[in-house]
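Sample pair:
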Amino acid sequence: GKPRKVVRVRPEPAYEAVMEGEPPEEGLDDERKPKEDVVTLKVAVNADYLKYAFIGKDEDGGEVEEPAPELLTFAETMMYRTREHSFRFKNTSGARMEVAWRVCYDNGEEDFSADAPFSVQPDNDALEAGESREVTIRFAPSEVDTYRRKVVGVIQDLATRPPKPAREPAEGEDGEEAPAEEEEEGEAPPEPQQQPEIALQGRSARPFCHFEMVDSDWLTGGRRPPGLTGPSGAAVDPGSHVVEFDSMGTQVRNTKRFFVMNPTNVNYKFRWECEDGKGAAVAHLASAFRCVHKEGFVLSGKKAEMVFEYTPDSDQLLESFWRFHIPEYDLAVPFVLVGHVKEPRIFFDKTYCNFNSLLVNHRGTQTVRLVNKEHIPFAFAFNGRTYGADENPPVVKITPSSGTVGPESDMELQVQFMPKIEKMYNYNAVCDVKKKATRLALNIKGEGFGTHANVNVEDERGTHLVTHHESTPVDFGDVHINETRVKTVTVTNSGKYPIELEWVTSRSRLLTIKPEKASLPKGDKCDIKLAFHPLTEARLDDHLCQLSIINGPKYNFSVSGAGRKPLLAFSLTKVDFGNCFLYRQGAQPATAVLRLTNEDNHDVSYDVVFDNKPFLELDASPTNLSPGQSEEITITFMPRELRQYHEYIGFNINGLYTVNVEVMGSGHECEVALANVNQFSYALGAVKVGTIVERRIKVRNASPVFASCSIEQAAARLEAFNITVRPTTFDLRPRETAELEVVFAPQSRILPFSEDLKMDVAGTNRTLMVLSASAVGVELKLESDMLFFGAIVKGTR
């Protein structure tokens, strides 16, 4: 039928429309409109008519199109042999081309037989625009004949062209399709090419024998070194068959087997002959190469197996020349046996073990893996003499030192290094691997070093060297409580490498060591403080402290010390002022004297930890007392209230601990007064001059305070009035009463008077009583010792 245009529309893929605005709330209808965006879709299309070309080379080696070969004729080829012919095929169009190559008979039927003489590679191919490909045709006959075939390339869409437009038939014309006119615009499509086709022809011949073996390019591929010669110095026949051996190490028997086929209808005898010659110069070839079957028969149409062995004793490249003879046909075929020794891929994963610096008599271990990448196992053994394994004890030890490493596996080896003295060590441990021409070597190096530390202890007597052979005494002596006495242990690293140190001792509240651990670089030193700090009166006797140099010597110290209080003697540790009168301005306060004496053989300092108060004061500044020195401190008690007082005055000794002095007392009102209060205003009355009046007045101390009373001042003043008061001073114990004798002996008349008898009690002056009296007597006396007459006239009366 007529070609027709077919348009197929791909269905829309699954999608979700993007709507404008926010989605409605749940339960409401979505009234939004689909969102419209303008998207530019760029489409590139490349359309072309398929065409091809055969490519050759010009004189300059460049590519040039050439016509397809009409006939390829292969030269006469022996059965079981192969000849090849190649050509380059190119896609010269702008579209992708798929081509399938087929070998067909002359009638176009494809040759599918198993023993088809011709084959083509690749048989199916796809060429992009402008791409070319090498196409190879092989001729491999298996029978004697003359073969003719053709190779055809099947290219899809090679002849595809657009259909010509149909013209409406004119009136009176039949409905047959009329030829279309030339297109008014554009070029007409080119005529399609024919499918590529090449005729093939080849002829085969029957050989006397056929060697079923893999061909080697030892001679044809340029792999043979040019310095090698043939048998007896002659050139090597280029048509020689090559049998190559690849030996995995030395002393390994390698076998090559191949078949010789007799394609004739006659049985014949064969013989192998070596052309290497004789003598000592070629003795190594005779020991390396061996023909197992040097002669025998090959039956008609049958095969005979040939076996060669290669056992190398060195890694040298060897060639041995042989000839295969068939005496019946006087035929000799040259052979070259080539022996390669392939070094087994067995190796250490690292070629050295660097232990760097290691302390003498200390062990370092590293792991090395012996790796076998081959498909056969290999036995190995280390040569102990190469790394001093015969020493006792050895510096280097390898475990295991011998064994077998399995195919395509590895074995872990432990390398131990323990230096005996301070020096550099460098060993090349040789490992012999059986069947391996070269030996493996493992470099083992390291340095032995020792710790060189100088330890000194510094005290009041100076610096002393410490040895690790004996214990070193460290005596702190007597140390005041809460005081710290320090001794210094200095460690100097005089070696070439860093050292680490650590103190090992049982815990003690009296002793601290700082730092307990330290690391010292080369040439550096560390001062370690041993501090004795007693908190109570305690002793530390021969306390063991061990300074351990890591991986080095240990130093023992025997530490002793005693904690005691400073010998500062207090004359009083408790001051009881007892009952005291309340302090009044001008009164004499109660005082106590505290004596502090340094009975120690060291200076002792003290500081009073007390703030003066209105009722208790003392004047004591921070003081340092030399041995035997004393200091007195006055404590003043001035009670202001009617109550008991109880305070502690702290004395901080050497800034380390505190001694408290207890102070107690109580305040009381002064209740010293007349026993009879009605006598406060006491009248002696009017006493005649010359007479004596005596009165006794009782004074009572109603307070619990001892009272010292004095009326001296008042008595002296009353003597002017001829009044005598005795006694003028007296003491009253609590609740005690004393009598005062008052004597009034006037010597002249005294007008009435009234005087206060004041009494001084504990420095306070108060009125004990008021005395009143007068002295009377008979006495004539002019009323006036002068008369005044005023102004008188002279001579009158």
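Residues 277 and 638 are 141 Å apart (CA to CA).
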